[in-house]
């Protein structure tokens, strides 16, 4: 289950505050120290933790809390609000171009879940938004990647545009968009190449595609279980490509939540969706407030 370890620790810490008729500065200090340790253990970025704790402390020793009849409850509310804020506050919507199709580039490192997520997102756009999506196989370096997207397309009964491994990714993307216009598709989801590490060749290729297709969104797919590595990957993709949003995968297996709680604060880019399982309908719109509730119980 997502965030299980972190949730358990934070809930234990915070429960001590519930029902307190009076809260001293010392109580707040102790709670803040425990929350800090829990977040660091969950692999949340050091600076993010520092800023977070500072805000909690400032608010918790404020007049509104200390003079309240239920200070313990007030403090829990503050932690929840700040956690929500940390994950972006409001839910972030997917772009829709005025003139269809809306082009979305899916980017990320190999193994992060990019191809699966491309299928999941197309499925969600069709089911939830009633849109007609076209999947595009632009990872020409790995024949297995094209096959994988085609298999996913078959499972979902969605079309996959492919030109095999000999074509150039920019041409594939351009041809796919032309095809989508003719056939009145609403969304074009381009599954781009991934590598094991960020490298210059990959970034050059992705930039070329970006310049040619002018996407409405560049969604970075990262594996939430990799914690701060995911955050570093996000920073480097963002520097090179200016991504528009993040999709966190494998949140169902992420016990700690370090990436989920750091990535927004570090990159300033919204988390748009979360992968909650291997199945193709297990992609959820990311709701910061619901996530915060999940953590605090
Ligand atoms: P790519 O190399 O980035 O295209 O990654 P894939 O789409 O091939 O996914 C890699 C592995 O992660 C596959 O076994 C997927 O089933 C799995 N995966 C992707 N998203 C999720 C998720 O949200 N939860 C879980 N549990 N597994 C996922």
TrEMBL record:
A GO biological process held by the record: SRP-dependent cotranslational protein targeting to membrane
Main enzyme class: hydrolase
Protein name: Signal recognition particle protein
Organism, scientific name: Natronobacillus azotifigens
The protein's assembly and partners: Part of the signal recognition particle protein translocation system, which is composed of SRP and FtsY.
Family designation: Belongs to the GTP-binding SRP family. SRP54 subfamily.
Domain remark text: Composed of three domains: the N-terminal N domain, which is responsible for interactions with the ribosome, the central G domain, which binds GTP, and the C-terminal M domain, which binds the RNA and the signal sequence of the RNC.
Domain SRP54-type proteins GTP-binding: 270-283
Binding residue positions for GTP: 108-115, 191-195, 249-252
Main location: cytoplasm
GO terms, molecular function: 7S RNA binding; GTP binding; GTPase activity
Function field: Involved in targeting and insertion of nascent membrane proteins into the cytoplasmic membrane. Binds to the hydrophobic signal sequence of the ribosome-nascent chain (RNC) as it emerges from the ribosomes. The SRP-RNC complex is then targeted to the cytoplasmic membrane where it interacts with the SRP receptor FtsY. Interaction with FtsY leads to the transfer of the RNC complex to the Sec translocase for insertion into the membrane, the hydrolysis of GTP by both Ffh and FtsY, and the dissociation of the SRP-FtsY complex into the individual components.
């Amino acid at each position: 289950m997502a965030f299980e370890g972190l949730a358990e620790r934070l809930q234990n810490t915070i429960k001590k505050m519930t029902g307190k008729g009076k809260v001293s500065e010392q109580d707040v200090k102790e709670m803040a120290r425990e929350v800090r340790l829990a977040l660091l253990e969950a692999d949340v970025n050091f600076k993010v933790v520092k800023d977070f704790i500072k805000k909690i402390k400032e608010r918790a020793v404020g007049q509104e809390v200390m003079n309240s009849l239920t200070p313990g409850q007030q403090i829990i509310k503050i932690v929840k609000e700040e956690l929500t804020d940390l994950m972006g506050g409001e839910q972030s919507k997917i772009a829709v171009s005025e003139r269809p199709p809306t082009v979305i580039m899916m980017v990320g490192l190999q193994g992060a879940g990019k191809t699966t997520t491309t299928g999941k997102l197309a499925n969600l756009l069709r089911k939830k938004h009633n849109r007609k999506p076209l999947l595009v196989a632009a990872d020409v370096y790995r024949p297995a990647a094209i096959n994988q997207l085609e298999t996913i397309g078959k499972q979902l009964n969605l079309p996959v545009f492919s030109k095999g491994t000999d074509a150039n990714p920019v041409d594939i993307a351009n041809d796919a968009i032309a095809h989508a216009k003719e056939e009145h598709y609403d969304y074009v989801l381009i599954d781009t190449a991934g590598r094991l590490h960020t490298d210059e060749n990959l970034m050059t290729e992705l930039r070329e595609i970006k310049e040619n297709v002018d996407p409405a969104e560049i969604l970075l797919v990262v594996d939430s279980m990799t914690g701060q590595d995911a955050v570093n990957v996000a920073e480097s993709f963002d520097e090179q490509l200016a991504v528009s949003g993040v999709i966190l995968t494998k949140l169902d297996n992420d016990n700690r939540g370090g990436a989920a709680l750091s990535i927004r604060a570090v990159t300033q880019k919204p988390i748009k969706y979360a992968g909650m399982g291997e199945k193709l309908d297990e992609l959820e719109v990311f709701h910061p407030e619901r996530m915060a509730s999940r953590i605090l119980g």
